[in-house]
Design goal:
about 170 residues, mainly alpha, about 70% helix, RNA polymerase sigma factor, RNA_pol_sigma-70-like, sigma factor, transcription regulation
């Protein structure tokens, strides 16, 4: 395959690579950078590509490896090393002590949110939370199993709405 043909095929394939780049980076600018870097690496290493093999898979592999390398480089760059005698990694989680204050606030908020649920939704939800199976809840409350599943689903949805401030924290 000539350089011109390879360039044309690479340009066509880049349209298919863009969604994968976005899934990896979760940011459109970073996805564009990753795509550009992948295309550049593929073009500069085009002699390593064997005709008759799967170009798409080759490009996806280049992109994935480039993303992993960039991520590892970023993590290393953000790791600070203390040069005192004991040589600790500042962002090391080996000896992490937490006072768990945030969890007591969260549990208080969760319990308050559960208390706000209507009894029709709260009872099946709490039974399921405590380990009861759907069919056991249905028998105990004398309601169809589909109703049990629906009420648990609605309770979860309502709780998720009431506790959305915790969505990105945990």
């Amino acid at each position: 395959m000539t350089a011109l043909e390879f360039s044309y095929v690479l340009q066509e394939m880049s349209k298919q690579l863009r969604p994968f780049a976005y899934r990896l980076t979760k940011d459109s600018e970073d996805a564009n950078d990753l795509l550009q870097e992948t295309v550049l690496k593929a073009y500069t290493n085009r002699e390593k590509f064997s005709d008759g093999t799967n170009l798409k898979a080759w490009l996806y592999t280049i992109m994935k490896n480039t993303f992993i390398t960039n991520y590892q480089r970023m993590v290393r760059r953000n790791t600070f090393i203390d040069t005192t005698d004991n040589l600790h990694f500042i962002n090391s989680t080996d000896n992490l002590a937490e006072n768990l204050a945030h969890s007591s606030f969260a549990m208080k908020d969760i319990n308050e949110a559960i208390a706000k649920l209507e009894d029709a939704y709260k009872t099946p939800f709490l039974m399921h939370f405590r380990g009861f199976k759907y069919h056991e809840i249905a028998e105990k409350l004398n309601i169809p199993i589909g109703t049990v599943k629906n009420r648990i689903h609605i309770a979860r949805k309502d709780l998720k709405g009431m506790l959305k401030s915790y969505a990105s924290k945990y």
